[in-house]
Design a protein that fits this description.
Length: 349
Amino acid sequence: MKTLTSIFTILFCSITFGQIFQDNVAKEPLGEFPNRWDVINGMASIDQADGNKMISIMHGGIIKPIVNGQTNNYLGDDFTVEFDMFFGKTSSIYGQRIEIRLWEGQYGYGKGDISYKPITLKRDGLETSWAHPQPGTAKNFLKGLYTLEPVWRHVKIECKTGKLKVFLDGNLVLNFLKFKMQPTMISFGGGINDSHFEAKVGINHVKIISNIQKPNEGTKIIMIVDNTTNRVKNIELLETMNDPEIVAKKYPNSNFYKGILYGNYSVLPANKAVLAIDTNEKFIPGDQFIPGDQFIPGDQFIPGDAYIPGDTFIPGDTFIPGDTFNLTNTKAKIITNENDKLILKINHN
């Protein structure tokens, strides 16, 4: 028997598992550690710079986002990370920095003959080094970004088909044509060496988009929901649901939602599986299933609502991450709702 190991998705368009994290810390109280983050080393807290809130990272501090309940293994082959970073007034252009790691831990990455140092971002550019297996270094600082005054910079890190690019205020400052390790997560570290000013560095408006798997790699499935109680009855493979007479006898008074299951599977989703559900269009037994069909956005599923086991699954209700409800005889936890998809994670505990 196969077991479901990755993602179980009920969706109706050709996009992949898209945006998975966004945080602007606007509602975070000053002086506190941000509640959607975890610490690897040192200290960080909510602070202000130029009237804008940010996560201030102390010297030696390293933090990482909590993405759908995970602090690692949430990045796919292709991903984009964007954020704003702040540098305070300084006496030295190189006295403040933000360090980026795309792997777990507080040091560099090393496996076999492949190694990478953290990407060190500064207000006017970056530097890093590597060996894969030939050694190399990159130092790229732009005269047009030189300043000792307080400044915000926008960073975009893009990984696609094994190529890693870093942009600083729209300028390409790093381009790996062959990045030879698979990033699994991202962390942000702070570095301050400035004796003349009470310097600070920080980040805000962090957004992570990761495309985990392509729709045509999945297994076509149908979710069956009772038309009266709105409880999920079952999940079936598409090929078992194409005879209208048989389906009507087996599942009377039911609505059907088509989707794609990513990864392996069993009769029931396995523990820690993830689901993304769209309830805006019903599947009619006998119809063709065409990945990429267009659907009209419906009611919003708002992250944060709670569902007690046994509650009904009602399209149009408000769903809030952290709450749970029964999916067949399995508990499903609401993770998030973005881009008109309700994201669920299976938990047998």
